[in-house]
Design a protein that fits this description.
alpha+beta, seven-stranded antiparallel beta sheet
């Protein structure tokens, strides 16, 4: 069958869209400004005699060379399909050619920044889930060609190569309809933004602030902290009032940044069920389109924080087999969904879960005493001794940390549950935010039982179930149960005929 002209590019040496040149230049200059902005400040505020130093000239020359080489690299980048392999050729002085069997490609995801949207192109990220974590990307490709590439990849079957004629037949078949499982409204995004970790945002702001001040001080010779100390000494106790007023403002700013970031990142969030798994589309300025092949999904996790529980929501993560680098960045994450949506995701991943009998188990209470010892008793005694010289007997207030840790450890122990069935396992754990995991036995790659000296004396162990997308760890499980689960899982993995991916 004659190839359709519309898809001829797949079988010829093709370049990226010419928009890639603009994107490469913008990325280069953005990185240069981000790394060299202290030098720019020196030029602005300490111009000296108006002469550009030799080292600055060297930087400019190096930047010009890097910009030219980035443009030339565009003309030296080719991709094409040959003998059911995706071939990537690139390099200027050091040329490389990468041949990847199409049926081994795990994920093909799209990203659209503002410029991508203006020119109707996408950035394509491809992962092979190899042991070396090999990944490559195409900076700019037309949306039509990118979708054709992904459709071709999905049409391939492991150990069952598809000839070109069969591929072309798939191109004329109607695309199966997608089922919209979830679409987040503005109200949903507000709830998700409210329930995010605002302390993490505050920490990022503080780290950025201190890093920014350090660069300013080095560039301009300005010591901010010395001036701050002088201001405090001159102001007496007045600085404390400014501090008390500043803390609520800082918390509000952290909350506002988290909320805005959530709105922008998950704007118009849509989650689909497709004929091969799931697809997610979201973002305002940067649009992300990610797919998860159901066969590649190894386990699913969902999280319920106290605030999300108040809203009746949970966040869901679909962990699919991919290289470590791509797995962290491109894992499918649903920031918030309600119980019917979660049930639909679980049903799609594991249809028989609803009809299976799960046996509930607990971990050993010994975990409480170990946590109290290492996280409560030792730190509390250490701080009491260290502060005794300055505070006297009032330092014994640090000993209150011991019962606090015990109560938290007791809550952690009571919340830890694992439920075992003939076909898989479900776990739940946490202190305030509850984490749930769902895993089928045949997805497991290895099982590990580890014991410390203390655990050997008490006949308990840590049991870890490894998959191609992460692990599930059950702490302080009775040794007999750990061995029984180990043997049973090994039997299920060896006897089950289904492929794990």
């Amino acid at each position: 069958m004659k190839k359709s002209d519309e898809f001829q590019f797949l079988f010829e040496r093709s370049r990226q869209s010419s928009v890639a040149i603009l994107l490469i230049l913008i990325r280069f200059f953005r990185g240069a400004i981000r790394n060299l902005w202290p030098i720019l400040l020196v030029f602005l505020f300490n111009p000296g005699e108006g002469k550009t130093p030799a080292w600055a000239q060297a930087f400019i020359a190096l930047g010009f060379f890097a910009a030219v080489s980035s443009i030339v690299s565009y003309f030296k980048f080719y991709f094409y399909v040959e003998s059911d392999e995706l071939v990537i050729e690139k390099g200027i002085l050091r040329k490389s050619k990468l041949n990847v069997p199409v049926d081994r490609i795990q994920t093909v995801n799209f990203t659209q920044g503002i410029l991508h949207q203006i020119f109707n192109v996408v950035s394509v990220e491809i992962d092979t889930a190899g042991s070396q974590g090999r990944e490559f990307s195409i900076n700019a490709l037309s949306k039509k060609k990118a979708e054709a590439l992904r459709e071709f990849v999905q049409s391939q079957k492991r150990n069952n190569p598809i000839i070109e004629a069969e591929f072309e037949e798939t191109l004329v078949k109607p695309i199966p309809p997608q089922e919209l499982l979830l679409r987040l409204s503005a109200n949903d995004l507000f709830k998700i933004g409210v329930s995010q970790n605002h302390l993490r945002t505050a920490g990022i702001i503080m780290a950025f602030f201190y890093g920014f001040l350090d660069d300013i001080e080095q560039a301009l010779g300005f010591d901010f902290f010395k001036k701050m100390d002088k201001w405090i000494e001159e102001g007496g106790n007045g600085w404390a009032l400014y501090l008390l007023a500043g803390i609520p403002i800082f918390i509000f700013i952290s909350f506002l940044i988290t909320l805005i970031r959530t709105m922008l990142r998950y704007y118009d969030f849509k989650f689909f069920k497709t004929d091969t798994g799931f697809k997610m589309v979201s973002g305002l300025f940067t649009k992300n389109e990610q797919s998860a092949n159901l066969q590649k999904i190894q386990l699913i996790r969902w999280f319920v924080s106290p605030i999300k529980k108040l809203f009746g929501m949970s966040s869901v993560s679909l962990a699919q087999a991919a290289s470590m680098t791509v797995g962290r960045r491109n894992s499918i994450y649903v920031p918030g969904c309600y119980e019917p949506h979660l049930a639909a995701i679980r049903r799609t991943y594991w249809q028989e879960e609803e009809i299976l009998d799960f046996e509930e188990h607990h971990i050993s209470k010994l975990i409480c005493w170990r946590q109290v010892l290492y996280m409560g008793l030792f730190p509390a005694i250490g701080m009491t001794v260290l502060r005794y010289m300055e505070e006297g007997w009032t330092s014994i207030v640090w000993l209150l940390w011991i019962p606090a840790v015990y109560l938290l450890s007791l809550r952690y122990y009571r919340n830890w549950r694992y439920f075992v069935s003939e076909e898989g396992i479900r776990t739940q754990s946490g202190i305030f935010t509850m984490k749930h995991t769902l895993l089928q036995w045949y997805k497991i790659q290895a099982v590990d039982i580890r014991q410390s000296i203390y655990q050997r004396r008490k006949e308990v162990a840590h049991l870890t179930l490894y998959t191609a997308a992460g692990s599930v760890r059950i702490p302080y499980i009775e040794l007999d149960k750990a061995r029984a689960i180990h043997d049973f899982v090994m039997y299920k993995v060896e006897s089950d005929g289904r492929r794990w991916m």
